[in-house]
Amino acid sequence: MSKSPAKAKAKRTASLALAATAATAALTLAFVTSASATAGAGAPQGDRTTAAAPSVSGSPEGAFSRIATFYGAYIDAVYDGDGTRAKQLRAAYLSAPLQRELAKWEETNHADGVLRAQNVPLEWKVTYVDSGMGKTNATVTLTWSGNDTTRLHVQADLKTRKILSITD
Q1: Edge-to-edge strands of the sheet including 163-167?
Q2: Taking Cα atoms as reference points, which of 136, 141, 139 lies closest to residue 75?
Q3: Beta-bridge mates of residue 123
Q4: How far lies 126's CA from each of 101, 138, 143, in Å?
Q5: Rounded Cα–Cα distance for residues 30 and 35 (Å)
Q6: Alpha carbon separation from 123 to 42, 72, 145 (Å, rounded)
Q7: Residue closest to 157 by CA, chosen among 63, 89, 70
Q8: Phi and psi (nearest 5°) for 110?
Q9: Bridge partners, residue 165, by sequence
Q10: Distances (CA, A) of 121 to 3, 23, 43, 67, 125
Q11: pLDDT-based confidence at 56, cuts 50/70/90?
Q12: pTM value?
């Protein structure tokens, strides 16, 4: 029995998101390991402490995990110039009303509505804020060149796990 196109697309999107999360974890590990080795250079052996290995985790059932997964995968797609993948991620993770709202915002502002910018951030961080009344809230911090940051408030539905709003 063959898979439906929708299930195949969902599986492909989930695979992309998982790959983005794994890549982020690997880069974080490389950075932390490098920084740890540099910080410990010249210190006596007895004074070195072992840093805990970083980890990334999530759940397909958690709305907060979905926000983090979306932003990681979306930024990778935009950075790679893969417009098709970026559109697929929007379709999979954003509610239909938000997709329409972003299209209007982008037409008016001539920028990417998810990132609220014309370029791609150098780093991103998603921080849990709270959950209540069927929604979860997070802050997405985007870091640009010169260490400038943009903070976005992102809200997702706890039941559908779709992102409902992105505001600055």
Answers
A1: 123-132, 135-143, 149-157, 163-167
A2: 141
A3: 143
A4: 22, 7, 12
A5: 9
A6: 30, 9, 9
A7: 63
A8: 55, 45
A9: 155
A10: 36, 16, 35, 16, 11
A11: confident
A12: 0.70
